[in-house]
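Let us walk through a complete example step by step. Step one is to write down the protein sequence. Step two is to encode the small molecule, zinc ion, as a SMILES string so that its atoms and bonds are unambiguous. Step three, shown after the inputs, is the structure prediction itself.
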Amino acid sequence: MSSVIVKDSKIQGRGVFADKDFKKGDIVMKWDASMILTEKEAKKIPARYKKYLVFFKGKYIMAQYPEKYLNHSCEPNTKEGNLCDIAIRDIKKGEELTTDYSINSPPQLKMKCNCKSKKCRKII
Ligand SMILES: [Zn+2]
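Step three: the predicted structure of the complex.
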């Protein structure tokens, strides 16, 4: 049973959306961290897959479905916990879930941001 769904996003490509209401502090998604890469392997990943890489406690984790579709926002509604995403405010069913990639993304990764938040930093 999942409490999130993946569908087209206004931010970019596909995104992850709440399929129920979450309260601040709820775990919205648990990560499947079964795919851990070495730094050498991580650097060889084709550019289009790099956005699925999460840098967590010195490990490169290849995000799996549905986590890999979690978009970045400069004004996110979730944060990364211990191999999970946690709501940082109440989230209504139907809202797109977002996180701040700059916290746990691999150091060499830079991306343009299209989150449309007033606080957008444009480059993350
Ligand atoms: Zn932004």
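Step four is interpretation. The longest strand covers residues 4-8.
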